[in-house]
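Quick one:
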Amino acid sequence: MGSSRLGAPGRLIVFEGPEGAGKSTQVARLAEYLRGTGQNNILVTREPGGTPIGEHVRRILLDRANYAMLAETEALLYAAARAQHVRQVMRPAMEVGKLVVCDRYIHSSLAYQSGGRGLDANQLWTVQELATGGLMPDLCLLLDLPVSEGLARRKQDSVQIDRLEADDLAFHERVRSAYLRMVAAEPEQWVVIDAQAPVDEVSLQVIAAVEHRFDAWRTVR
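Output:
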């Protein structure tokens, strides 16, 4: 599951993590920082979503009224939204040299639907390969924090709690454990960020990780 450029000159940075880790905030802050340094060739996007079809699928997936959704249905809906996203948005952007910064990608499916729901990881990975056409991140940033703290952050505003966030503590513990296993398996692909830290400190950690990776990319060009 290593990086696969497939001829695309752009780069893909993905933010992952359990609920309440602050991914959306840090995605926006990283993009703002990079643009402030003159790097304007950036596309910010998210999953599920990123396209009109993907946003429709997102609403279905996160709607608490859909509590009876099967794990298999959930996994296939995420993959369907991802297939649209990769081919309509992400790959075209990378082919013209853009840096794509995405809030969640394939590792979310592996963490949530395999780690959390218990679906077979190999079968799930086959679905991801079909959905992505082999497009893998150049860098994955895991914003990590204890599950109890992340859920407490989200539940401060109960109106916004979605179907996944409403799942039980054991589910979210399995999700976090799955992320940490992926980091251990492919440490070269990941940087773990302490999301318990204050927001500004987390931003500094993210920027440092990305700049370090930029330096490595420049070296190999």
